[in-house]
Write a structure and sequence with these properties.
Elements lengths: L3 E5 L17 E6 L5 E4 L10 E4 L9 E7 L2 E6 L5 E4 L8 E4 L10 E7 L2 E6 L5
Parallel strand pairs: 1-2
Antiparallel strand pairs: 2-5, 3-4, 5-6, 6-9, 7-8, 9-10
């Protein structure tokens, strides 16, 4: 499987352009500061599994399908587990955890803001997280 690489500045509270560019397809999400890719810990499909950064590999668990919610907002579906991620509830420090996709759920939608050529900041829709 060929994977496109989308370089993203992940600022791990969480993370498109001002134009209406749409991402289509499957991408890895790379932290531009450390070169690590976003994946679900141990490639587990258990609800509540945290997200982690990991050295780049050509694995499905490091690949995300972008489901468009509007012009620059997406839900991200992991190709290996078929699930997405959202902030963990009930914690003072916001952690991201794997959960089943609920289409239209704002807690699972991420807005992509351009931060350079092929680099984006990702924020939980409607928040600064």
């Amino acid at each position: 499987m060929k994977i496109k690489l989308l370089i993203i500045a992940l600022v791990f509270s969480i993370f498109q352009t001002a134009s209406a560019q749409k991402f289509k397809g499957n991408f890895a999400i790379k932290n531009v500061q450390n070169g690590m890719l976003l994946r679900i810990k141990d490639a587990s499909n258990k609800n509540g599994t945290p997200l982690v950064a990991y050295d780049p590999q050509n694995w499905k668990c490091m690949t995300w399908n972008f489901i468009s919610a509007d012009s620059n907002t997406y839900q991200l579906k992991n190709l290996f587990t078929g699930k997405t991620f959202q902030p963990k509830q009930g914690e003072e420090i916001k952690l991201l955890e794997e959960q089943p996709i609920i289409l239209g759920n704002d807690k699972q939608q991420y807005t992509f803001e351009a931060a350079g050529k092929d680099i984006y900041f990702i924020k939980l829709k409607g928040t600064s997280l």
